[in-house]
Design brief:
The chain is of the alpha/beta class and 323 residues long. The chain folds into two domains: 202 residues, TIM Barrel (Alpha-Beta Barrel), CATH 3.20.20.70; 66 residues, no CATH class. Helix content is 40%, strand content 14%. It has 14 helices and ten strands. Strands 1-8-7-6-5-4-3-2 form an eight-stranded parallel β-sheet. α2 packs parallel to α3, α3 runs parallel beside α4 and α8 crosses α14.
Length: 323
């Protein structure tokens, strides 16, 4: 299948693995890229630019296919060494960067000069148009269904994707709630040039996370995610657990007086405990409503091959029958 996204990133299938904290290691990115998609290393999971450089080199040893790096720009008490991370990406010969969070305009000239294609993650049409205006090559349009941060507009992809298609000239992919070939075809019909999957890729054999995480996804339904940090306008969709229930109780009790410090125990530094140690009640972790569509733990190749086979069958067999 050829789309503007497969052509832009020189990949076989229009499937991107989004950046995921303490999931997007070299093993994950290489497995997706070897299967014909675009694997993504999560830059800020690496503690320093030197660590990221080593992770890029590890990935290069595992695949000769294109892969990218996610770099999320967020306000922080201790600002990451973004110039160092950018240099590691450029020096590592990476040709695709997924940016997220704050406006990446400051960093685009260096990336562009190095011949790197930039896809920015956006949760609204207005932000997507801004990404296009500042020179991003593509956009990942992230609907309300997504795991992680869906923004504050609460617009699901059934509306958001065709709205993006009405406004954007650059290619975009559908992100949030995607797990199968049916949804790939639907995304293409709504104007996208591919899909971005996060939660679905955690439930694969190569995903470098604890088995407890994969089983939690397998056991969950579409009703088992919650939205936290809404009062702080930093909304995050997470899988429900005891820590999330505590967090929501604090939000209700404190109301407009809630501060980040009140919930720090449930949200700060929990990812290593969950993803690596499998301590599932340690805190809140990003997870999409798509868990309701995840019923197995395949290899990345099996997953991508199945998605493409289903999509091709729908396009070639089911859809022409309606004409």
């Amino acid at each position: 299948m050829k789309t503007r996204i497969t052509e832009m990133f020189s990949i076989e299938h229009p499937i991107i693995q989004g950046g995921m904290h303490f999931v997007g290691f070299a093993e994950m990115a290489a497995a997706v890229s070897n299967a014909g998609g675009l694997g993504i290393i999560t830059g800020l999971t690496q503690r320093t630019p030197e660590d990221l450089a080593r992770e890029i080199a590890r990935c290069r040893d595992m695949t000769d296919k294109p892969f990218g790096v996610n770099l999320t720009f967020l306000p922080s008490v201790s600002t990451p060494d973004y110039p160092g991370y950018i240099k590691a990406i450029i020096d590592g010969g990476v040709k695709a960067v997924e940016t997220a969070g704050n406006n990446p305009a400051k960093w685009l000239p260096a990336l562009k000069e190095a011949g790197i294609k930039v896809i920015h993650k956006c949760t609204s049409v207005r932000h997507s148009l801004k990404a296009e205006a500042i020179g991003c090559d593509a956009v990942s349009v992230d609907g309300f269904e997504c795991g992680g941060h869906p923004g504050e507009d609460d617009v699901p992809n059934w509306i958001l994707l065709p709205r993006a298609a009405e406004e954007l000239n650059i290619p975009f992919v559908a992100s949030g709630g995607v797990a199968n070939g049916k949804q790939l075809v639907a995304a293409l019909a709504l104007g996208a040039d591919g899909i971005n999957m996060g939660t679905r890729f955690i439930a694969t054999k190569e995903a470098p996370v604890h088995e407890n995480v994969k089983q939690a996804i397998l056991n969950a339904s579409e009703l088992d995610t919650r939205l936290v940090m809404r009062p702080l306008r930093n909304t995050e969709r997470v899988l429900n657990n005891a820590a999330v229930e505590r967090l929501l109780a604090k939000e209700k009790a404190l109301g407009p007086n809630l501060k980040f410090e009140d919930i720090i125990e449930e949200v700060a530094g929990v990812y290593p405990k969950i993803m690596q140690e499998g301590t599932m009640e340690a805190g809140a972790w990003s997870c999409g409503m798509v868990v309701g569509l995840i019923h197995d733990i395949p290899t990345c190749k099996e997953l991508i091959d199945n998605i493409m086979a289903e999509a091709n069958a729908i396009i070639r067999t089911r859809l022409p029958g309606f004409l």
